[in-house]
Amino acid sequence: MDRLEPWLDEVRELGIDGLIEKANRAYYQRRVAILHFHEDEAGVYADVKVAGDWQRVQVDDDRGKRRVLDLLRGEYVRP
Q1: By the 8 A CB rule, do 70 and 79 touch?
Q2: Which of 1, 20, 55, 77 could make an SS bond with 28 (beta carbons 3.0 to 4.6 A apart)?
Q3: In the Cβ-directed half-sphere of 24, how many Cα atoms lie within 13 Å?
Q4: SS3 of residue 12 by DSSP
Q5: H or E stretch covering 73
Q6: Distance of alpha carbon 17 from alpha carbon 2, whole angstroms
């Protein structure tokens, strides 16, 4: 999961109001969980809360990472 660190900087810089990062790389908007990660033999996955439901996205490649950023922007970044 350490290899995600440069990309996590992009997550942190999205401008999500009230973003809190916990020690286990779980992200909250104030007190509500919005992003966390899982790793298994198949890869690394991000779970993103969108419209109250969790969406799982594999983030081993740039396409998956862009998808997560797009989901977070759409749900949590206000113009």
Answers
A1: no
A2: 20
A3: 8
A4: helix
A5: helix 62-76
A6: 25
Per-residue pLDDT of 9-37, as tens digits, reads 999 999 999 999 998 889 999 999 999 99
pTM check: above 0.85:
yes
The first and second tokens of residue 7, run together, are 């990309």
Written as six digits, the tokens of 36 are 């966390």
Q: 4-12: long-range contacts at Cβ-Cβ below 8 A with a sequence spacing of 24 or more? A: 4/37, 4/44, 4/59, 7/59, 7/65, 10/65, 10/69, 11/35, 11/68, 11/69, 11/72
